[in-house]
Design brief:
The chain is 41% helix and 18% strand. With 696 residues, it is α/β, with parallel strands linked by helices.
Length: 696
């Protein structure tokens, strides 16, 4: 299966094999992302022009397209150079004019001889009370009328590619389409009333009205489903490959876990207990775990992570927790250390800062198995880092990790179970697209004792009042973050914004009360400023968004976000999550610059009205679209040509369960439907999947 099935050869041939496409047009089409007949089939018309025939233009909606049979009357050639050539024509009830500019010689006379009948189609407008059609789109002898379809598809075009060219090329591509076996589950197809693949493609390119170009049209819906299904099949193959990869059975005895649980001042939430048992069940299997733990800010991921690490230790192995930055790794250390002490487990940290003797001693202890849990940055991946018996790898804050990196990680320990933790709530449709190869656990309850955060919108014209309130809070021993926006992506501007704010606050609140952190500082200064704030030596921390991820200061109960309207929703939610971690009631002030745009207003209102990260993420998706929410460039989100992630999330969900079921019933895709699915993967250019099958 490592080469393309022969039945698809015509669709992957040169564009010049299509009617009306020469080398130059082929080059222009490539600029539109159309490089072969297959691409043309998946470039669907985005609207239709109604060219149904009428007897007369009387009663037509103007300006608009009309198609009507006329008798050619008199010609009035232009009086001067560059003037218009006008032809009077008559339909069944009235007369109107055809207008031509820059007509060469007797071209119009030859095309439209006086007294003859013609079928004319084009845009008709009223000009000084006279109905005119400038440069008709079609002028045909009546017996050739069938060349004008009643509904003409409108395609995306580019310089050097006309609608006529597109229609001719597409018709020619449609003639090349082979008969392909069905890859959709027959029950699913019948239930949704979807046509066969070829009929769907044909209908999509020959719409019989506006209803045929709607995403809900059965032909279009089927083609969207094909894209989702191919994508989910790819993810399911990656998942099956990892599943088939033998894992190690890590069977917990509960001894260490119960020590931690009995020392906790509260009972874990139902969601935490559910996640822990899902993870423990996975780890006890002889196949490798590949699970995503999704939890909103403050939903208690740390405890779940620790419990998972203890499963590895109870089973006689080691666990590692990896964070993207030094500062986050140190924070995990702080969060996990008290729990490790309760369990009586050896916990250490390894980052790029460990050098020389100290690093060597840690590596030796790790290789001997004396360090049971390691917290670290990507430094953990280095070649000289060896574990005695690594069972579980936890990766924190996953946006920087794609399917490929997950496969890489698996290579480090022979059969390491993988748990990915993300604090960014992801709408379900995107979670399916991005993490379709993983099993998902969701923490959707807040642990007891977390107080709600009061969120207020404030105009920046009231900044003096705000500083006054801040001064009062500081004298009461409270701590606050003041976040400055990244201005215009320019680091220098950004720097001055933060530094200016720092000077103003320092003048108002006093020397030594205010700290400053921004992206241009050397890491050591950044860490020192963070540490001073963490220890309570400074009361207010002015920062650019470097504090967004992770840093924990339980005493900080006020969050001011300046120019909140220019931040994304996910970012605002993450920033707000930095407060409300201690026992004090917390406030988040969204400071905006009036007047607010409609989207700015909507964004801030959603933030004010809910603390539910999943709700916020759904709103974000509605407002911005999938590519932006994850940043398509780095997310590895597939680019769908027909399917639309936002409006067709439910289809993605069906595609996922169907793909998993197919692989479960037919792991090597050898059944008739499995063979058809292989052809689909080639048709949809799912190279990764094809590699997995050919080596699989």
């Amino acid at each position: 299966m490592s080469s393309r099935p022969e039945i698809l050869f015509p669709l992957f041939a040169q564009l010049t094999k299509l009617e009306g496409v020469g080398p130059k047009i082929a080059q222009n089409m490539e600029n539109m992302g159309v490089a072969k007949p297959r691409d043309l089939l998946f470039s669907l018309p985005h609207s239709v022009v109604d060219r149904r025939r009428r007897d007369t233009i009387v009663g037509a909606e103007l300006p608009g397209i009309v198609t009507v049979e006329v008798t050619i009357g008199t010609h009035r050639p232009p009086r001067n150079k560059g003037g218009a050539h006008r032809v009077t024509v008559e339909d069944a009830e009235t007369s109107f004019q055809l207008v031509f500019f820059h007509a060469r010689g007797d071209y119009v006379q030859r095309q439209l001889p006086t007294g003859e009948r013609r079928l004319i189609s084009g845009r008709l407008e009223l000009f000084d009370g006279v109905a005119q059609m400038v440069h008709p789109d079609h002028m045909l002898p009546v017996d050739e009328g069938e060349k004008i379809p009643p509904f003409e598809p409108v395609y995306p075009l580019t310089a050097g590619v006309t609608l006529k060219t597109m229609m001719k090329a597409t018709a020619s591509a449609l003639r090349m389409v082979p008969g392909l076996e069905e890859w959709i589950d027959p029950q699913q197809k019948a239930q949704s009333d979807w046509p066969d693949w070829f009929d769907a493609i044909e209908t999509a390119h020959q719409p019989q009205g506006l209803k045929d170009i709607a995403a809900t049209n059965p032909a279009r819906e089927r083609l969207a489903y094909d894209e989702f299904f191919a994508h989910q099949l790819t993810l399911a193959l990656a998942r099956a490959k990892q599943k088939r990869a033998a894992g190690i059975e890590s069977i917990a005895n509960g001894k260490l876990q119960s020590r931690v649980l009995s020392a906790l001042p509260y009972r874990p939430t139902g969601a935490q207990q559910r996640a822990v048992s899902e993870i423990s069940d996975d780890m006890a299997q002889p196949i490798r775990m590949n699970r995503l733990l999704q939890g909103d800010v403050g939903s208690g991921k740390t405890l779940v992570g620790m419990m998972a690490l203890l499963v590895a230790v109870e089973a006689g192995g080691q666990g590692v927790m990896m964070a993207p930055t030094e500062i986050l790794a140190r924070q995990h250390l702080q969060g996990l250390k008290p729990l490790a002490e309760q369990a009586g487990v050896v916990l250490e940290i390894l980052t790029g800062r460990d050098k020389g003797k100290e690093r060597k001693a840690k590596l030796e202890a790790l290789a001997r198995g004396d360090i049971q849990i390691l917290v670290g940055t990507h430094a953990v991946f280095q070649a000289d880092v060896h574990f005695k018996d690594l069972r579980l790898a936890i990766i924190d804050e996953q946006h920087r990790f794609g399917v490929r990196q997950r496969l890489e990680l698996g290579k480090k320990g022979a059969a390491v179970d993988v748990l990915v933790m993300t604090a960014t709530p992801i709408p379900r449709s995107l979670a399916l697209t991005q993490y379709g190869d993983m099993d998902v656990s969701v923490l959707d309850e807040k642990p007891p004792g977390r107080k709600p955060i009061t969120t207020v919108m404030v105009s920046d014209q009231r900044i003096d009042e705000l500083i006054e309130r801040l001064r009062k809070a500081v004298t009461e021993g409270k701590q606050a973050y003041w976040v400055c926006p990244l201005v215009e992506e320019s680091e220098i501007m950004d720097l001055t914004a933060a530094e200016e704010r720092f000077k103003i606050l320092r003048a108002a609140l006093g020397e030594g009360v205010v700290g400053l952190v921004h992206g241009q500082m050397p890491p050591s200064e950044k860490d020192a400023a963070m540490a001073a704030f963490q220890k309570g030596e400074t009361s207010v921390l002015v920062a650019t968004t470097v504090i967004e991820v992770g840093v924990d200061v339980p005493n900080a109960s006020i969050m001011v976000i300046e120019r909140a309207e220019i931040f994304g929703l996910a970012q605002l939610h993450q920033l707000r999550g930095r407060v409300g971690r201690g026992s004090a009631a917390s406030t988040c002030l969204l400071m905006y610059q009036p007047p607010l745009s409609e989207t700015g207003q909507k964004r801030l209102t959603v933030m004010r009205d809910t603390e539910d990260g999943f709700k916020i993420a759904e709103t974000d998706l509605d407002m911005r679209g999938a590519g932006d929410v994850i940043g398509t460039a780095q997310s590895g989100l597939p680019r769908f040509r027909i399917a639309d992630l936002e409006s067709q999330a439910a289809l993605m969900s069906i595609a996922q369960s169907d793909a998993r079921k197919l692989l479960n019933d037919d792991p090597d895709l050898t059944s008739p439907r499995g063979q058809a699915a292989r052809v689909l993967l080639w048709l949809m250019e799912q190279d990764q999947a094809i590699r997995l099958i050919s080596v699989g």
